[in-house]
Amino acid sequence: MGRRTGNGTRALLTLALAAAVTGCAAGPDTTEAAEAAGRRSHGKAGAAGFAVQYRTGDKAARATAYLRSRRILEKAADRLNDTVKMPHRIPFVVRACGAAEPAYDPETGSIDFCVEHVDEIRDRFENAGRGADRPDGTGGRDAHVAAVLEETAYHEGAHALIDRLGLHFTGREEDVADQFAAVMLIGQGRAGDSKALTAATDYALAAEESPFDESDLLDEHSLDGQRAANYACYVYGAHPDRHEDLVGDGRRVTEDRAEGCPDEWQQARDGWRQLLTGHLKQSL
Ligand SMILES: [Zn+2]
């Protein structure tokens, strides 16, 4: 369920697999799934839909202040709520998790949004010298970090939708969750393209940081390098005329793959449109 693999997170694999099994067992029957979801809500009051809760206390002041001031999760939650009818309350719980491992928890029906993840992304861009802030203190790195966090919110939001709405599909859930994030970002127009490419950059940097390990093949996620290429392919495929510069030797999308990217994008977007039939408030 977590966003990515990493050297420090493999110990969580067993837990994640157990969580995935629980998610799969949500049941094919909508009523049954809804009742199960109701039980998981632990009787908490509150409006349906995605929401944000801060539970960091005095910890992680910098990351928390950053999230709050830019309203990154609030805006992502609003966009999710404007797009999908979610009959259950799904909180993004901002907290110190002990690892940079944001994840949807099917047991609680909430999304742990770890402050360590915020710091990890900022560190990764800083270490790579990417997105330096401008002299006037605007834009730059903050915008990069915000883009990746928004992608994370949609990826984890997809797990919540799959679980709570009882959606069924073939293929790996982690790839399908990335596809939802791509659809939510690219649907925002050119600014969204840029966010999706920033997320791709983050995955590419993560791939450079953690050399391939055979244990990665056992993980539920695709390799970070593959995820980077997938996002770039969707961006190109949605608007080939806008993004010719993404394609070619040494670029984000190979010539061979580029040919199929429009179809890959269409499959991803149409697949989610179909999955969310009856649940959409506006077209994806
Ligand atoms: Zn995931």
Automatic annotation (TrEMBL):
It holds the Pfam family DUF4344. Residues 1-26 form the signal peptide. PROSITE patterns: PROKAR_LIPOPROTEIN. Keywords: Signal. InterPro entries: DUF4344. This is Metallopeptidase DUF4344.
